[in-house]
Amino acid sequence: MIGLPTDTIYGLAVSATNDCAIKQLYDLKTRDSCKPIAICVSDVHEIGKWCELTVTEELLDDLLPGAVTLVFKRSAQLNANLNPGHELVGIRIPDHNFIRDLCRLCGPLGLTSANISSETSCLTVNEFSHLWPQLAAVFDGGQLGRCDPQRLGSTVVDLSVKNSFKIIRNGCALNTTLEVLQNKHHFMRL
């Protein structure tokens, strides 16, 4: 498990294929095992491997990379021990070269905020220094928050129903996400 910068806040990441690492992530965060974590991939063309796409690649390119987590029905290829009991999965491609390069090297990552559940999200590595002893590495990307100064995290949007969407979490990219979905692609809000 590592601590690393994203395009919004600092995150904790593990291999999405490593059951032991996923469990350690939940334990470290004291996160309810029923609360799913997103996966992070490097490029739009990888998304269809891990979920059942209901949107065009054009829409994906309009939203990603960016501060948006897209939710779809999970595919059979996704590790069954990642978010067991959930038919949906959130997929993220941060607009940050370091994490995208890491995904290219390591495959999909389980990704969540670098904090104990219900604590404030972090914009510097020092804000989660109490977690460092339990991490294999911490990558300092400097002060974050240029795109997310309020520490809202990514906007989470469910796209599992064709031609419609549901906002799960407003996040920091709500306005641009709504613009793309409603005005450019004419999706209906559920």
TrEMBL record:
Keyword Hydrolase: no
Residue stretches making up the YrdC-like domain: 1-173
Compartments, as annotated in UniProt: Cell membrane; Cytoplasm; Mitochondrion
EC supergroup of this enzyme: transferase
Catalysis: reaction(s): L-threonine + hydrogencarbonate + ATP = L-threonylcarbamoyladenylate + diphosphate + H2O
Membrane topology label: Peripheral membrane protein
Superkingdom in the source lineage: Eukaryota
Keywords in alphabetical order: Cell membrane, Cytoplasm, Membrane, Mitochondrion, Transferase, Transit peptide
UniProt KW Mitochondrion keyword: yes
An annotated GO BP: regulation of translational fidelity
One annotated GO molecular function: double-stranded RNA binding
One Gene Ontology term, aspect cellular component: mitochondrion
InterPro entries, sorted: DHBP_synth_RibB-like_a/b_dom, Sua5-like_dom, TC-AMP_synthase_SUA5
Entry EC no(s): 2.7.7.87
Assembly and binders: Interacts with RSC1A1.
Known function: Cytoplasmic and mitochondrial threonylcarbamoyl-AMP synthase required for the formation of a threonylcarbamoyl group on adenosine at position 37 (t(6)A37) in tRNAs that read codons beginning with adenine. Catalyzes the conversion of L-threonine, HCO(3)(-)/CO(2) and ATP to give threonylcarbamoyl-AMP (TC-AMP) as the acyladenylate intermediate, with the release of diphosphate. Participates in t(6)A37 formation in cytoplasmic and mitochondrial tRNAs. May regulate the activity of some transporters.
Family statement: Belongs to the SUA5 family.
Protein name: Threonylcarbamoyl-AMP synthase
Native organism: Oppiella nova
